[in-house]
TrEMBL record:
It comes from Lutispora saccharofermentans. PANTHER family: 60S RIBOSOMAL PROTEIN L23A (PTHR11620). Belongs to the universal ribosomal protein uL23 family. This is Large ribosomal subunit protein uL23. The lineage of its organism: Bacteria, Bacillati, Bacillota, Clostridia, Lutisporales. Keywords: Ribonucleoprotein, Ribosomal protein, RNA-binding, rRNA-binding. One of the early assembly proteins it binds 23S rRNA. One of the proteins that surrounds the polypeptide exit tunnel on the outside of the ribosome. Forms the main docking site for trigger factor binding to the ribosome. HAMAP family: Ribosomal_uL23_B. Part of the 50S ribosomal subunit. Contacts protein L29, and trigger factor when it is bound to the ribosome. One of its GO terms (cellular component) is ribosome.
Length: 95
């Protein structure tokens, strides 16, 4: 699996923007990726040093259209903390 296959997209919310001061960045990742794969992918793509990775498995919400019900797809979220001597990720700097 490629590093770009593991990291799907960043999460841009008020909470995630507030955590950037502590060098914590949030990403939507592949649902089958483990913490070691996520750490290697972030280090390879952004050229930073990762200290710690926390993962959260999010279940999809139930939605309805009239009488039909369905479920949105589930996803996995990863909160990546960088080391103190690591540089910040430039992708988030302009936001």
């Amino acid at each position: 699996m490629n590093a770009y296959d593991i990291i799907r997209r960043p999460v841009i919310t008020e909470k995630s923007m507030g955590e950037m001061a502590d060098k914590k960045y949030t990403f939507i990742v592949d649902i089958n990726a483990n913490k070691n794969q996520i750490k290697k992918a972030v280090e390879e793509v952004f050229k930073v040093k990762v200290d710690k990775v926390n993962t959260i498995r999010m279940m999809g919400k139930m939605k309805r259209m009239g009488r039909y019900e369905g479920r949105r797809p589930g996803y996995k979220k990863a909160i990546v903390k960088l080391t103190q001597d690591s540089k910040a990720i430039e992708f988030f700097e302009g936001l």
